[in-house]
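Troubleshooting log. The previous run stalled partway through. Resubmitting the same three chains, unchanged.
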Amino acid sequence: MSEKRIDDTHARVSQKLSEIDPEIAWQAWQPSPEIPWNAERARLLFRRGGFGASPEDLEYALKHSSSQVVDRMLGAGMGKKNEEFERESSQIASSVRAGGDAERLGAWWLHRMMHSPSPLVEKMTLFWHGHFATGADKVTDSELMYAQNQLFRKHALGDFRELVHAISKDAAMLIYLDSESNRKAHPNENYARELMELFCLGEGNYSEQDVQELARCFTGWEVRRKMFRFNPYQHDSGMKSLLGSEDIESGETAIDVVLRHAEMPFFVVDKLFRFLVCDEPRPSKSLLQPLVNRFIESGYKTESVVRQILESELMLSLWPVGKKIRSPVEFAVNLTRGLDATTNLDRLAKALKPLGQALFFPPNVKGWDGGRAWINSSTLIGRSNFVVDLLGDGNTRFHGGALDEWVKSQRISSLDGWMEWLSDSLLAIPLKPDEQLRWKEQITSSTNANHWRAALITLSRNAKLQLS
Amino acid sequence: MVLYQRGLTFCFGVLCFSVCCLLPATRVWPQESPSQSLEVASDVESANPRDWLPDSTVLYAQIAPVSEWMEHPLREWLVETEAFKKIWRSPEVMKARGGITVAEFAIGYKLDRLLRDITEGGVYVAIDRETKGIVVLTKTKGEEWLSKYLEKALDYVRKDAKSKNQPEPIESAQYRGIEGYKFQTGIFAAIGPWLMITNQGDLAKAVIDRTVDPGLPTLRQARWTAIADATWLRDASGTSQDRGTATASRLVNFEVDLATVRSVIGQNDLFSEQAKDFGAELILGGVLSVLRNAPVVAGSLDMDASGISIALNAPSEEQWFAESREYYVGPLVSGRAPAALKIDSIATLGTYRNLSEMWLRAGDLFNQNVNDQLAQADNTLTTLFSGKDFGTDILGAIEPELQLIAKQQSFPEDGLRPTVQLPAFAFVAKLKKPEVMRRELKRIFQSFVGFLNITGAQEAQPQLDLSMDRVGDNPIYFAEYIRDADRPYENGLPIQFNFSPTLAFLGDHVILASSVALARELLDEPFSPSEADVSPTDVHTLFRVDAQALQAILESNENAMITQNMLEKGHSRAEAKREIETLLGILSLFRSGTVEMSFQNKASLSLRVDAMIEPK
Amino acid sequence: MKRRTFATGAITAAAGLAIDSTCQGRWMRTLASELHARASSLYRSDRVVVVIQLSGGNDGLNTVIPHRHELYRKARPKLGVSSSDVIEVTDGLGLHPSLKSLDRVLSDGRLSIVQGVGYESPNRSHFESMDIWQSCRHKKDRAPSGWIGRWISEYQASERPDSLGVHVGAESLPMAFLERGVQVPSVASLEQMRLKAKVEQVGSTDVGGDVASSLMKGDERGASEGEDAELGLLGFVETSTSAAIAASERLEMTLAQTTAPTGFPSSRLSEKLQVISRLILAGVSTQIYYVTLDGFDTHANQPAAHEALLRQWSEAVAAFTARMKEAGHEDRVLVMTFSEFGRRVAENASLGTDHGAAAPMFLAGPKLPNLLVGDHPSLSDLDDGDLKFGIDFRAVYAAVIEDWLGTSSLKSLDGDYRQSATGLQLFANRS
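Second attempt completed without errors. Output:
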């Protein structure tokens, strides 16, 4: 039986992805005396399926099973707490929306990521925001951005096909891709191209001819007064053929044709895999096949794939540990959640910009590339400065109090204890003994007499804090 | 001397608090230090600290005894207020109160009694330039009393240190027959019934020297303090008493050697000839001229049953105002605020400011950098005002007596309201050439609305609808935002719906308002244009704020303020709510606030801040 | 293979820094020599372009002025700059008097004025025309994409520690940088490139020491596999961290050595160029910097505003090039200035000018063979009251990309402008 498992607890023989048996990879992970359910696995689950574990999350996780944890990340059994949270969040939203500034929507969303009882929903909303990337710099109307974000949330774990249909009529998306007007005489190819290339199929799975035909299918789809509208007088009702299908009548049918393409589930599952499991290498089709099957069987429910990945042998074997670079949002929210910290959310939202991931402002329609693209001199310095600023902000509190008090409340009394706590709860890969030593040297030789802070600041310059 | 006897019956909240903080230090009097050795005991009894302080003093303040404060009618009022009760019961204060009770028990003296007795004859504070020290002199209940309790306190501190295995906490030394004690950073000494506390040994010596040797130069002889003592300045700062309210009491009197402060600070931004900051110049221009030149500034804090008043006075001379600042003080320092409009409002500001002159004199007033920015702004504004020169044609169209009003708006109870409710603002000024300018301004207003619509359309913002109406003979032009018929506005109306830009004329006056309702109200409540010409007072600037109206508008935005607090401080809703409620609670203590500035008789600048208290 | 060499080099450099950082004095010396070594090895190939965008439409005719021309005097009766005021360049052609701070650049032969630059069927909308200048495309029929963005996507190597392009300013990223898969930092202030809490970073460069060991072990967590990833993720982040800290420290060193560079006036543009000068001197390997100066839309009361803007621009450029010269970088840093259009030849009735067409571009920094490139557009042969362009702006870009940066311009400019670029002879022949 142990042969059928991927035990990566000690990272001795990290198997190559290409050598992992797909059947074993996606079977449901089961604890055993040798491979127990523990804090390290729970933390990984919270990093990938949410925005890191708060001390409270971890306490819950260790008393429950891995699949119960996933249930909870989806908000199961959180009835009253969820209600309260939604009320609080909508009040923040209404205050932020009143100002009409899209940048402040980021503060509202960060509040959700930090406090939502269903973090997996927020995580997947972030996934779709990057997948169907739309930038407020061009859309300008924060109401449309807000509406689009709610759309992502609604469909975050639902039927992918429904999401594609909905986003194809989303005003913010159409404005972003210059498809506000799409006339018979001048079909706009922008949305048609991105629908196939970036949203559903990937390059190489369609021809230029298909782009032109699909654009014709979308003629008459317009945005007027900030709302989608179909203008039958501008619809090209001539013969259209797309991806081998003939006689396509409406835009909706055309979307269905795209969604029926055999590559679609592979394209979506591959992206989910990279979002949840590892940045590199790209998974093979055979590794993805079981997930693709599940996707199709479930009626293209995103939740089914996400669940299978999170509860899989591959995930909980700890194989993915350290194989993803934290996005700036993950970096920031993991850190604050891990330290049970609250702070000025407007500043937090603004601080993400120099790190390369301003919420509601993706760099272009392709979204954030992620992986190694997150890292350069400027963003790394930014990440360290982010930690310094967070600690220096008078509004930053740890479980409502000062850092020192909070450290005491965690029953930590020595620098060693604090370093161990930080290393365990913030780092995916533990520090090696010599790294520990050097870190301690840096803390004690620091001119900052507050060693609790100094430990965090020096840690912010450690590469391991960037990995998930 | 008269002043000292009559005027020094006070205390002041903040200082009283700081005396409390000094408490551990004030229980340090040794047994073996009776100060009978003082040769001039009888003089000491009736001495004035002005004769003891060195002539290098740069700040001198007289503060009322604690008893005045304790028995002040406002104290009773304060302790009965909800906000005070809340603070009094807060965990931080409870903890401090616990500590005080322990100390009271150890010394066998109630804190408030102790403070009363220590400060019975008044409190005097001085800052000295030479020694860079600060000294506090209090006249206590009596010489005997002081030596007894000084002894008790020193004893307590020594025992306390011993019980904690700490070394001897007090150093003592004699100087000219006076025993001085050093505890932590403070130096204490008893001079007859006087208790002296300072942070500099040299300053302590300088004071003691003067108690013994009347030949040394003292504060009383310093030139600047003589100016500060001049009758006119005293009168100016004594207005509260002049008003003759029987209960008014002077809590603090202070004077500052401004020339020395300037020489220490040097030519920094505040005192530089050319302003770096447009906003600071606009608000403070004339005041800066005075601060650059005046030898002294004197101030006071008065309190009576109805409120608190802070006054600042400085001498001023006509020639101190450079020609370039005539825009601020008016020709021959004659600029006066217009008569205040009688209208219920949150705040009103009336002032004299010749904006056109300021704009055109910018070259002299500001440095190159500000001027470059102004040149660009001028170009943009002139474009915006359809080719009219901003400085000459637009700002030059109005007289320099200006009035600004802020008033809460009412929105329909049942209908849609803006999520964030802002007050309405209005600007009122007299036109120089009403016949010509009415037409011009109307046209400019129309194209301005058109401009807002075009830029608004580019930003997907709501559009304005332009209308015209008459109230009596007076035309009113206004533009209102139109609701989008298709839009449900389930989140309430956007912030723009607080505004309906309005231009109206009333006789020779022009009204620019952010809301048509406020403009109509101003037209309905006609103010006599001739009244505005004659300023009944010498006031140059008058700002009034109505705390109740301010509170009302804040309350109508309480939800928005709470969420704002959650976003800015990361608070939970409960924490945010508590903080906002405390803020509103403090505000509810006040009825109104006033800031008044005048260049009286062309010879003095006086600035008064009055806070009136909401009676229960 | 090339990659590995690079990585090892960076590690050695970082490790060297780490060891010496324990001793302040030696550290500074080592850094200085390190900087020098980098300078000599890198700078020959790493040329830099600083693009200054004058937003709003600069009045080219009152910048490079045919002051004696009868038609000029006639078109600009009120706004015309008189012959006695201009800075004479050639007979009859002068610069606006507020450009006098460019004197030294001019006399050193380090300034080129490219006259009559524009494009076919000029658009007089700020936004449209700016889009054309930044995208090098006429129609917005595709996703936004700019010439620098496309150039970066072609030349950015993933191991390069710094982005090839950097936008300096608080406004949103200019379209010129947009391109799929390209992420360019917007640096609002120098603080963004400096590690905060410096006192606390004693010895923090040590992270580099670990890189070599993690490189050795392929099976280490965080390492990834496949032929495309010789350096695992952890190794990659560690190398990048060392490079970032090293860059930040070099920056600190230049900041420490040059106490607030003298000569930089206090203006917004000057502050931005000052940031760039410090990044360049810190050895940041960015090749294209981009800044904007807004306010040139002078429809009314033009003289004072235009003069202030030109002064701001010329003083900033003069200070910047002087700083480069002082540091010995003047031959590798080029400043290129453009505006989305010039203004109409005839002044309007509000002492201003309205949106026009062709206008001059300016190059400054290295030795440049020709002060004047192209002819001043004719004042008699106008296109609906506007100056006709003689040089397509893409030819100037092409010369900069090909002859200055030594790269291909085809993808960046979405077309072949090489021939017209060669004709301009903007730069001395490269050997």
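Takeaways: The beta strands of chain A are 221-224, 227-230, 341-342, 397-398. Chain A touches chain B through 30 residues (CB under 8 Å).
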